[in-house]
Amino acid sequence: MAGNWERLLALDDELIRLFNLFRRIEFTLRRTRARYGLKDNAVLKDRHKGERCFIVGNGPSINSQDLTLLKDETTFFCNFFFKHPRIREIRPSYYAVADGKLATGEWDISILEEIRESCPDVTLFLSATFQDNPRFAPYLNTESVFWLYVDQL
To answer: Are 7 and 140 in contact (CB under 8 A)?
Structure first.
């Protein structure tokens, strides 16, 4: 039985590897990395080298945490954290919104402006696949917006 489980795990790993390979090939064939501005992300390399950072998710457990302790730290937040009542005090360093719901309109694009109003000094990360969507045109050449290839498992 253990041998079957190990084979199943190995198959799962291989399927994920193939999926990720396919996505990279698809991305390369559809668009060039330069067009998506991924090369611009090089300015971020080593920006916080040697510093600690905190990556905070959106689970309900954050409601019981005193996140103001992170206000002077390098922090990464995502999606709907901008609705947190103390976001202006916490002052996120980086903010990622890469869910496809933003591109499809399921999430209103106005959340990006709400994030920028709540966190005026934040560096924003968006999915590179959003760049073809006209709704994201105002963010294409914005200094504080970086584009990420996030469609991998």
So the answer is: no
